[in-house]
Design goal:
mainly alpha; 21 helices
Length: 443
């Protein structure tokens, strides 16, 4: 067993490597290997433990979930269904104030339910929604904020990559976590809606020509064939979500099987929408580029978890946090603060891998439901995507917008209200955990 000094040394080395820009996957691997070698007194034993951990991680059936859901999202993205979805939603909202911003929120919510990746949603709607908002004289900060802020829905509304990673690390049911994210995701969408409508009523100038017919922002589809394809794309995405999530909820198939069904449906939709064989091949290659780093991170995270267990590091950190007070709210506040600080420097998946093995057992000890705590954690970590100076969603939007007037500061300014709303949802979930646990209890 390790000592407090060993625990502090491992944490300090790990943080130091990350600050020195060493990739998280390498930092976790190095700390795990040399930490286990120190504990066991043998490099051979440490190597055997890590090799066994790697084998167990790779052979886990659940590991297929990530690449399958990513592939499903790639097929949908390349089919042009995101544009179709945006157009359909925009028509459906009719004359609501801030209609284009509202369509962006709903579009991000639905598209995020397909891709499971906030960054993908931010990239897609930066290209789709921003030009339309600029055309209608929207304030650029308000337009960019609605894109970056609502992209956070992608990690909460299932299927979410973050929920999958959390489930793997904490050994919870991914299906139950998926279902748990539905109500909080809808609540977050409603909160974004209320803010945008209120903002548009108070400051209509920020939302351009709010008193005119914003339908001009859409291409007038006079060709019945084009309109048919648009409906097929938008409604096809909605049908895919209903079948995948409905199948998981009613026990028709596991999350891995649901991902396989989703890929087949997305492939069919992509073919019907005219995606070429080359486009399908590029989707597969891009899936590999996205999934491989995540899977390597999960493998090294399993090694890191084993080191925490054998070295007594988890117990040491838990005792340290409990020594600050036994109030569950205080402990949760400390965790959220740690997530915010880490969110300024590293990505969401890495934050989960570093903190969940320590925080999840502590939360259970403090009386938090593990599913409710998972959703609280996802929302808090997601706020990091909008937190300076990193804010990956903000950087993604900046990279995807060619407007020379757009700066990182302008996007961060527009994103602040959405960051505050995410914090409010964390508080709401902490006080009313049934928002997350109600649907899983029906499974």
């Amino acid at each position: 067993m390790g000592s407090p000094e060993f625990a502090l040394a491992i944490i300090a080395i790990l943080i130091g490597l990350i600050i020195c820009s060493v990739p998280v996957v390498i930092a976790l691997g190095l700390c795990s290997f040399f930490g286990l070698a120190y504990l066991t007194g043998s490099f051979n034993v440490a190597g055997s433990l890590l090799a066994n951990t790697t084998y167990e991680a790779i052979r886990d059936y659940i590991f297929a979930v990530i690449p399958l859901f990513v592939l499903m999202g790639e097929f949908i993205a390349r089919s042009g269904a995101a544009q179709d979805l945006y157009n359909l939603i925009n028509r459906g909202l009719k004359r609501l104030p801030g209609r284009l911003a509202l369509a962006t929120v709903v579009g991000n919510a639905v598209f995020g339910a397909v891709t499971g990746v906030s960054i993908a949603s931010a990239a897609a709607f930066s290209r789709i929604a921003y030009p339309q908002m600029v055309k209608h004289n929207y304030d650029k900060a308000a337009a960019l904020g609605s894109i970056a802020g609502s992209a956070s829905l992608g990690m909460l509304i299932p299927p979410s990559v973050l929920l999958i990673v959390w489930g793997v690390i904490s050994e919870q049911s991914i299906g139950r976590l998926f279902v748990a994210g539905i109500i909080p995701g809808l609540v977050l969408t409603a909160m974004f809606f209320i803010f945008i409508i209120g903002f548009a009523v108070l400051k209509p100038a920020a939302f351009g020509e709010t008193n005119t017919d914003e339908s001009d922002a859409l291409i007038d589809l006079e060709d019945p064939e084009d309109l048919r394809k648009e409906k097929m794309g938008g409604l096809g995405v909605c049908a895919l979500i209903v079948i995948v999530l409905g199948g998981i909820w009613f026990g028709a198939f596991t999350p891995t099987e649901a991902a396989g069904v989703g890929v087949l449906m997305a492939l069919l939709l992509a073919v019907l929408k005219g995606v070429s064989l080359r486009g399908l091949g590029e989707a597969v290659l891009e899936t590999g580029r996205i999934s491989a780093p995540l899977l390597f991170l999960l493998i090294t995270a399993q090694m890191y978890s084993r080191l925490l267990a054998l070295g007594g590091i988890t117990g040491f950190i838990q005792d340290l946090m409990l020594s600050l007070g036994n109030s569950p709210f205080l402990i949760l506040s400390i965790m959220v603060l740690v997530w915010f600080i880490l969110g300024m420097f590293i990505d969401s998946v890495s934050i989960i891998l570093l903190t969940v093995p320590i925080f999840a057992p502590l939360a259970i000890t403090m009386g938090y439901d593990p599913i409710a705590f998972a959703i609280i954690g996802i929302v808090a970590i997601e706020a990091g995507l909008l937190t300076p100076p990193l804010g990956l969603c903000v950087y993604t939007v900046k990279a995807c917008v060619s407007d020379p007037d757009v700066t990182l500061g302008l996007i961060f300014k527009g994103s602040i209200p959405y960051w505050i709303i995410l914090i409010l949802l964390v508080v709401l979930l902490a006080n009313f955990p049934a928002l997350a646990t109600f649907l899983p209890t029906l499974m």
